[in-house]
Amino acid sequence: MNDSLNLKFAALADPTRRGILAMLAQGEATVTDLQKPFGISQPAISKHLKVLEGAGLIERGRAAQSRPRRLNTAALAEAGAWIDGVRQLWDDSFDRLDELLADLQQPESKE
Amino acid sequence: MNDSLNLKFAALADPTRRGILAMLAQGEATVTDLQKPFGISQPAISKHLKVLEGAGLIERGRAAQSRPRRLNTAALAEAGAWIDGVRQLWDDSFDRLDELLADLQQPESKE
DNA sequence: TGATTATATAGCCAACTAGATATATAGACG
DNA sequence: CGTCTATATATCTAGTTGGCTATATAATCA
């Protein structure tokens, strides 16, 4: 259970894949387009795209013999939501109450 | 260059580490505390903590013989900011102008 | 001091990953 | 049809990773 989140974060862990996502944020791009900026082989790009697609982060279109990729921002948002969730949990947590109390008990805190 | 972002996303790629972060979102915890929920060895936990600390996502305190870990939300926020940046880029992109135009040229769009 | 508790480190191994090259598939076009 | 362009798949390999057990360090306490 939540495997798709797992796939998303695993996909985001690679810098080349993040680069691909950044490129796709500016619009659709073909495999050949995507290959240029990174100094790696076409199969390597295709493999990365497969991972990204498996994570739902991108989608595959079709135009003539090319398969332009497009960003799926909703899937990206899910990863962002996990991060926000943890941060929110932290912000709302009462577990740090003792710290606050400790602070209040030392009125002459220098620094 | 931006290596620290890399470390953050790599750290987030593992489900156990995300679990640890989720636990720490509710307050400090020791290595022993953290070990319980996951069915893995103490050294495995320590290794994960080392990765998380290397990414700046957590910090190490000290209390008697224990080293309680605490979440660093600012570092987490940086990963979130990258995601938001890509989404923003997509939202603001003019590359999809043609789509809009195509839409406008079909006035009888139902729905 | 010696025993106990908490954590870290070392070394090992199986699984996975990112890259490469070689080859296959598929559509476009003359 | 054959050729070119675009992409996908197969196979291999070196490097990384996540887990383990065994052991080391470090602080506490009797």
From TrEMBL, chains A, B:
Residues 1-101 form the HTH arsR-type domain. CDD domains: HTH_ARSR. It holds the Pfam family HTH_5. It comes from the Bacteria. This is Metalloregulator ArsR/SmtB family transcription factor. It comes from Sphingomonas colocasiae.
